[in-house]
Queue: 3 jobs
Job 1
Amino acid sequence: MKITEMLHFAAERGEPVFSFEFFPPKNDAGVAALFETLVALRPLGPSFVSVTWGAGGSSRGRTLEMVTRIKRETEIEAMAHLTCVGASRKELEEQLAVICDAGITNVLALRGDPPRGQREFIPHPEGLSYASDLVTLAREVSARRGVKLCIGGAVYPEGHPETRDLSIGIRHAKLKVEAGADFLISQMFFHNRCYFDFVGRARSAGIEVPILPGIMPVTTAEQIQRISALCGAHVPAGLSAALRARANDPEAALQLGVAYAALQCADLLRSGAAGVHFYTLNRSTATRAILAALRAHEPWRE
C-alpha cells in the first residue's frame, strides 16, 4: 500500500501512522536480528518501515533486498531510501527500474550526506545535485515502466546542516513537492515547536502534502553529541545534562530517553501531527516501548 493511502485511511479513522527507520545490516547475523525485531514490532501495528541507502550509497543491493524481503515475509509495508551519492544518472535510473520491477511502491528520494571524511556533498560527474532532481527522475522512470510510485522527501525543521536559513529549507521542500513528492518526513528534533513552526511556514508557502515528524529517543550523552554534529538538531540543555548525570547507569539513561521521546510524541499527536517516524538506529527496544505506551494512552483522542 502507498504511504499516502495509509495516511488518508488513518486520518479517516482519526488515527496516526507509526513508522520505523532501519539501516541495512552488514552481515547475516544482522539480517536475522532485524527480522527478529520486525516480528516483535508487528503486534504494535507499525504502518510501514523504511530501509536506508547506507553511507555513501554503500548498501544499495542490500537495501532493495531487505525492502523486498520485509514486504514478502513480514507483511509490513516497506519503503526504500534512494540517494544521489556516488551514482550517475544512469545508475539511478537502473536502481529505480529495479525498484519498480520488484513491486516496491514507496521510495524516499534524498540527495544524501557526504561520505565519511568528505566535508561537503560533491555530485557524481554524471549524477544529480539535488533531491528534487531525484524526485523528477523517479517520476520519469516509474512512468516509463507503468508504475505509480509514492515518493517522499526529507525536510529540516531547524534548517539543513549546510545552511541554517529556514527560508531556503522551505524553498527546497517546495521544489521537491513541485517535482512530485507526495509526502515529507522531518529530520529529528527535540523541541516540538520547531516542527510545528516549520509546518506553519510550509503551509503558508503552499506546501499541502503530509509532513511526518521524525523522532529518535536518545539514550546516552555520546549519542547527543553525535546527533548534534550530524544533523544540527538543538538538544535541550536539561536533557543533555540529565543524560550526562546517568553516564554510569545505562538503564536509567535508556528510561530517560524513552520517557522524553514518549512525552514528545504524545504532544505531537495531541496537537495534530499525522503520525511519527521513528529513527531506530536498528535498536528498537526504546521505540517499541514508546509505541506501546502511545497505543495504550492514545493521546490523539484527547
Note: The first strand starts at residue 17 and ends at 22.
Job 2
Amino acid sequence: MKPAELLKDQVCHDHGIDLYKLEREWNIRRGIEIEEAAGIDFGPFHREFMLREAPEKVQRILDEMKRDADIGLLNAEQGFASMDYRDFPSANLRTAINTTTTETNLWNPAIHAPLPVGAIRGGKAWQLNFGGVHGTTGTPAISFRARCGTDNSAPPTGTDLGVGPTMTLGTFTAQPFVGVGTFGCRSIGVAASGATITGNGFVICAGAAAATTVATCVFGGAIPTTIDDTVAQGLSVSVIWGTSNASNTLTPQWVTHQSMN
C-alpha cells in the first residue's frame, strides 16, 4: 500500500471520516459554492475549475509559459494612471484674478490637487492640466510659479517648486490659455520634512489679439528637499501679473490632477 493510502487509512480510522467516499462524491462546483459562501471570490477551487475548463489554446500557452520560466521572461513594470482625488470641476476654480501684482493660486491645492498623507513616496509622479480665459490691456508682463502645500492665501506660502521668467503679452480680450505640469517625488527622508519633489510645466497664453500669436510661459525647475510627507500637501500653479489693472484678468476655469503611477 502506498504511503498516501496509508495516511488516508489512518485519518479515516482516527477521525471517523471516509476520505475515499469524499473523493468519489466530491464535485469541484461544490467547492466553489463553499468558497463563495465564505466570502472568498475566485478562490483556489474556482481557479482550478477555470484552468481545467480553459480552451486548449489557453492551456497550451500557460504550459509554454511554465516551461519558458527559466529563460527570463518578465513582465514589464506596469504604470496605471488615475484621477485619484478630484473629477473635472463643475464651475470656475475662482473669480477672475486682476487688479493685483500679488502671486495668486489658480486653484485651492488642498481641494483640487491634494496629496494626502501617504501619497508622497519615492518615484511617485503627478500631472496637472489646467486652463481658462484671460485678457489684457497694454503690454503687461506675466509669470507662473508652481508650489507644494495647502496654503491658498495671496501670496501662498507653499514650498516653491520654481517660478518661470516673465513674459510680455499684447492687448486682447477673453482669449483662452492652457497649461500642463509634471511633478514627481525623487525620495523621502527617514524623518519628516525630507521629501524631494521637482518638476516643470508651461502655460500657453495669447501673445496678442492675432490668433496666430502665442506666448509660452514656463515654470518649475526648483528641487526642494524639505517637503514634509507626513502631513497633507497639494500641488498648485500661481500667476503673477506685472501690472495691476482691472483689464489684466485671468480666470482659471478647470484643472485635472492625475496620478501617473
Note: The mean pLDDT is 88.
Job 3
Amino acid sequence: MTSESFSSLEVIPGIRAGFIGRVPDLDMNVGREEALARLKKPHEKALASAGLGGAVFATAEQVHGNLVAEVTSSSHFPVPGADGLLTTSPGVCLGIYVADCAAVYLADRSGRGIALVHSGKNGTELGIAPLAVESLCRAAATKPSNLIAQISPCIRPPHYEIDFAAEIVRQLRLSGVGDIHDCGTCTASRTEEYYSYRREMGFTGRMLAFMAIVRQVA
C-alpha cells in the first residue's frame, strides 16, 4: 500500500504524521461504510508500523461541514457532526478519511498541539481550515505564525472544476499561517496509488490521514 510522510511535519518535535493511500488487491467497489470496514485491518497495521498501535484512534463523523472538535483520550468517536479534530494530548492519533477531498494538517511548530481537517469543496467554502487555525491557536496557546500547514493529495483540475487546494492555501495565508505546504498531487490522475471518489463513481476506498503527538514537549 502507498504510505507517505511529509518533510514539513517531520521537523516538528514529538509529532508523527502520515498519509495511507490505496491498499492493493483489496476490492473497494463498495459503499463508504463497507469500504472502511474492509480497510480497518490494513490501516491498523500501517498505524502500528508508524509506532501508533497503542494510541487512541480519534475519528470524526465527516459530514462536509466546518465543525472542528477538540478531543482527548476520553472522547467518544467518531465525533458527531465534526469534520475536523484537534488535540493537545499525547497518545491521541487523529484520523481523517478522504477520497478526493483534502486532509489539512496543522501543527504548532513546537509540538504543543495539532489539528487535522477534512476539506473538500463544501468544507473549503465553509472555511473549515481557518476555523481550525483559530481553534488550535486557542487550545495550544499559540498564534497562526507559529503553525505549519500541509495539504494532502486531493483531486485537482482538470479532473475537478475547481481548485479547492489553492483556495485552502489562500484562506490559511489570510489566517496568518505563513509556513504552508501543498504536495500538489492529484488523486484522480493517480488511481493506482490513491482512491478517487469521482473517477471511481462513488464506489471506492478511502485514504487515511493521521497525526499524533507522541511525546509531550516542554
Note: The mean pLDDT is 96.
